[in-house]
Amino acid sequence: MKKMLIVLALLTVGLLAACQSRIVSDDITGGVVGVRDYGIAKEEYLGDELVIIKEFHIVADKSIYRPNILEVDKEDYVRIIIYASNTNHGFVLPAYGINEFLEEDNYKTIEFVADQAGEFTFFSNVYSGPGTKDMTGTLVVNE
User: Fold this and answer.
1) Bridge partners, residue 60, by sequence
2) Of 6, 43, 89, 139, which sees the most CB atoms within 10 A?
3) Cα 6–Cα 115–Cα 134 angle in degrees, nearest 5
4) With contact defined as beta carbons under 8 Å apart, do 62 and 89 qualify?
5) Range of the domain at 60
6) Spatial distance between the Cα atoms of 36 and 22, rounded to a whole number of angstroms
């Protein structure tokens, strides 16, 4: 019975994640357009506790983040896996004390708990060309 509940929970999470897919272009695969997971919910153990983690895959490219709007609920565990595609970039989210350097052609994983409701701007603090000042995004944390 316990196994059946776990399988049912995983299927539900999988269906919810599939409903949140978005189609985006991706320089990692040479500009091929395909389905990309957006804010997928994954069950994982943190210590002894089973939690749901909202996971986002972001590409930092030239002067934009794709996607640049992330939406979660307050108290969600958040994981951002970000790829710097063409040069070094930064990822700064002051409200959560995050200030990461993103090395060109590398991935960086950022994790935190969304414990403050509101809209929070993230941006790059590493010069990557004339559009760097416009390289921003928004984390929306719903109450």
Assistant:
1) 65, 84
2) 89
3) 110
4) no
5) 2-142
6) 6
Look at residue 61 and give its three-state secondary structure.
Answer: strand
User: What would the two tokens of residue 94 be?
Assistant: 């002051």
Read off φ and ψ for residue 68, nearest 5 degrees.
-115, 5
Cα dihedral across residues 76, 5, 20, 43: positive or negative: positive
Strand partners, 33: 25
pLDDT digits (tens, 9 = 90+) for 101-128: 999 999 999 999 999 999 999 999 999 8
pLDDT higher than 50, residue 43: yes
**Total residues found in the chain within this entry:** 143
Task: Report the domain count for the chain.
Answer: 1
| CA distance readout (Å), 34 to 9, 15, 71, 91 | 27, 18, 21, 25
Provide the CATH number for the domain around residue 57: 2.60.40.420
